[in-house]
Each structure stands twice: as C-alpha cells, then as structure tokens.
Specification:
Layout lengths: L2 H13 L4 E6 L2 E4 L3 H5 L7 E7 L3 H14 L3 E5 L2
Helix pairs in contact: 1-3
Length: 80
C-alpha cells in the first residue's frame, strides 16, 4: 500500500458524504475531500484527528476510520 493509494481512497470515501470532514495534523487543518491537501500532509508516522460535522457524520466517521486503519494511519475520531 502506498501513500498515494491511501490519499485517493480517503478522498473518494469522504466525497460520498455531505458532512464536513476535516483532518487535523499539528496546527494544519485539511479538507479530507481535497486530494492535494492530503498529499501534502499524509505521512504514516504522524497522529491525526478527524473532525466530522453534518447529517451523515456517524456513517462518515465509521467509513473513514476503516480506511485510515486499512492504510495503517493513526487517526483519532473526535467526538464533538
């Protein structure tokens, strides 16, 4: 699995949902639906926080947690 695969799969999964999905890495906030933003940010050694807001937030959180885990990325889903 490459980072490229992870980025594409994360962005494609996020795009299925209407919720706002933002990845926090240190002080950076990246729209998960932006492939370019993910490419410049995603490295496997880092810890991330995922912030999801919207009508389908629960489904989005579950789907994205699965994709992040599949690619070995350390993410915490933040419950607002």
């Amino acid at each position: 699995m490459s980072t490229n695969d992870a980025v594409v799969e994360i962005a494609q999964t996020a795009s299925k949902f209407t919720s706002s999905i933002v990845l926090q890495a240190d002080n950076k906030y990246i729209d998960v639906k932006s492939i370019l933003g993910l490419f410049s940010t995603l490295v496997t050694t880092q810890k991330y926080e995922l912030h999801v807001h919207g009508s389908d937030a629960e489904e989005a959180k579950a789907a994205l947690a699965e994709v992040f885990a599949k690619h070995g990325l350390n993410v915490t889903i933040v419950s607002e």
